[in-house]
Amino acid sequence: MISRAFYFVRPYTTRADLSRLRNIGIIAHIDAGKTTTTERMLYYSGKINRIGDVDQGDTITDFLPQERSRGITIQSAAISFNWQKKYKINLIDTPGHADFTFEVIRSVKVLDGCVTILDAVAGVEAQTEKVWKQSENIPKICFINKMDRDGAGYSRTVKELITKMQTKVALINLPFFEYDPDTQTNTFKGIIDLVNQKILKWDAEDPDRVEVMEALESSGEHLENFLKGREALVEVLGEFDENLVEYFLEEAGGDYLRVPADILNRSIRRATLAQYLTPVFCGASFRNIGVQPLLDAVVNYLPSPLEARFPEVNHRNMPMQYDPAVGVLMNHNKNLCVAFAFKVITDSIRGTMIFVRVYSGVLNSNNTVYNCSRDKKFKLGKLALLHANVYEETQKLYPGEIGVLTGATVADKVSTGDTIVTHSVKRDALKSLNKNIELNLKINPITVPPPVFVVCVEPKTLGNKRAMEEALSILIKEDPSLVVSKDEETGQTLLGGMGELHLEIARDRLLNDLNAEVHIGKVMVSYKESINSPTADVTTQNETGCRFSLSVAPIPLDIPIAETIASSSNNLKWYPLGGDNNYLIVENHESYRLDDWSFQVPYSAIINAIVSSSIAALQKGGKIANFPLHSCAVKLKGDWRIPLDLENVTDILPLTRHLISQALHSLRINDYSVLEPVMNLEVNVPQKHLGSVVQDLTAARKSHILSIDDEHELEESRGGLTSIDYHRMAQRQYLPPDITLKNAQLGEVGSGNKFIRAIVPLKEMVAYTNTIRSLTQGRGTFYLSYHGMDKVGQDRLESVIND
């Protein structure tokens, strides 16, 4: 018998070997069982002594009132626990709903490995594919959950994993069923461990009891599955690991059963870290089955901070190497501490709290640090380790750690995506760091998806306006995928988000958590305007001697901005203006050298002032419907000048804002276009319903069909292999018998489902869920993701403006 006490561990010493640390995330489609699995991990690690239930609303990581009432994860939650006496796991449980995709994006940014959970009944679902792509550069293991449910299909799900995710797999354990005479059905009881050659059966009445038996002592179908599975595992690893092949032939004498577990584990680890394959496990978290082997896999197969990818930084040639003492050693400086802020929350007691990942060196409480992203120096307050909504104070955050900055000093000094540097030893030794490299070091920021829906937010009374603005400020600081803008013509405040549920949760936060006295309007699609041609150059000068000359030009919608910047002249500097694909382009200053700056006002302060005024001017909107401007470049000429004795930038803000408005005002109304968000649409439908779905998409939804394929004939490729190659790989893969696999008919060309890809205006997809259910008798599924902004045709312009 194996009890939970066997897995109970003593407290972990933070300053331990970095090779014993794992920073992992749980990713999956909504309702696949992420939070349920996390809850069992915490229980079996000894972190908690009672298992919470999502349906009862008492889980550890879903602690927000909205999460507990709805039974879904809304914001990513982090927690630390120990495993196998010597390992520490920092785990982030992420949301599964598409509206909260930014929570996944920013979590993946700081993770070293992922556990992907699949629903054995539903298989590989749309959002699973999305989060898999978002974490494509991170090693992963898969856990096929809900094997106890009717309709569960282990082999079918593995085949979908191979073909849809385009990955090779290594089956580490297989499902174990026993015949139940009472129900006259096979009941899922445990797993067949192919590596350790064991069968593990969990007690349905006692989650702490596990019966272990030798796999070779089984009989019939169980023995056959074990022998074939062991053979397949060794063979797939042998394709990657020559050392394993040599051991198999010379030491094991060609006997698959004589290859020891430690040899296999090393081979699986190397293949996983190289992302050559994905190890696959199975279980039923709600029934407490298979979680301990999954935890073993996390520490055995996923990377430590010394094996993970290097952070992407703004200095392309920055020397980096792994160092067991400091983590990622940057610029050969062992005293350099580098941390990345990836999340901000507001606690009712502790105030603003900043989640950070320490990549290099040691972050000490009360140290003076420098925010490279905002050119700010400040002193840290208390530091804390995170355990969902419970925080444990600490004096230091060591390399590889995920922790929290607390205190009033960080409230307005750090935001999501900022890079913090400091000296690992001395409390105030920033002067000893390299000014041009280390104090200018930035980890590439998190990509924030643009909002596609908006709601109007208005104070109930004029006296509530300031409280409303403060509450909105807290919201967007916590969640940068929420965007606040103002309609200059009507004076309305607009809140933009990723989806209807996203804005509904924001509404709950405003009204119930932040107690804002506001009225919130209905959800609307977020429209923009853009200009079709550049303005003429305009110039102005005020009495203080400030002189500026600029123009505004359109940025092509169909060309990636990175390519545009890369192809531009070297004497141009691009600065982003918020989230509407707007940029400030500054020509090199011809009169002054930045390394010999003699003005009282710093160069960065001047640029920041022009950035602020540009954002305000473009938000005023275009001439057609006063929608905010999108995909515009404010081009500042290189002959601008300011007086030497200018003490602040207050004169620059109105001057440049008025100048941009003047340039835009010179354009005619015909020089403007209305833009609308268009989405990538993927629809999976049975072949017999294909015609009605396509007709609805092209006629009622105004969509542009890109392709219609059989599921296994998609033209994508990965690693030099086409999807046909992965389909054949799935056919060759050994899999145990599975009745759902036969029903799915995955191997027959022309049968099964069709896969439609299209580009469609978001406006036409509102309430599409009911339509697709009606057209396909409930069998069709679809997935939407943001594609970009596109011009609205004249035939639809009036309806868009009215909307």
From TrEMBL:
Superkingdom to which the source organism belongs: Eukaryota
Gene Ontology CC terms: mitochondrion
Cross-referenced SUPFAM superfamilies: EF-G C-terminal domain-like, P-loop containing nucleoside triphosphate hydrolases, Translation proteins
Signal peptide: none
Domain spans labelled Tr-type G: 19-306
A Pfam short name: EF-G_D2
Keywords: GTP-binding, Mitochondrion, Nucleotide-binding, Protein biosynthesis
GO BP of this protein: mitochondrial translation; ribosome disassembly
UniProt-listed NCBIfam families: small_GTP
HAMAP family: mEF_G_2
PANTHER family xref list: RIBOSOME-RELEASING FACTOR 2, MITOCHONDRIAL, TRANSLATION ELONGATION FACTOR G-RELATED
The protein's name in its UniProt record: Ribosome-releasing factor 2, mitochondrial
Annotated organism of origin: Zygosaccharomyces bailii (strain CLIB 213 / ATCC 58445 / CBS 680 / BCRC 21525 / NBRC 1098 / NCYC 1416 / NRRL Y-2227)
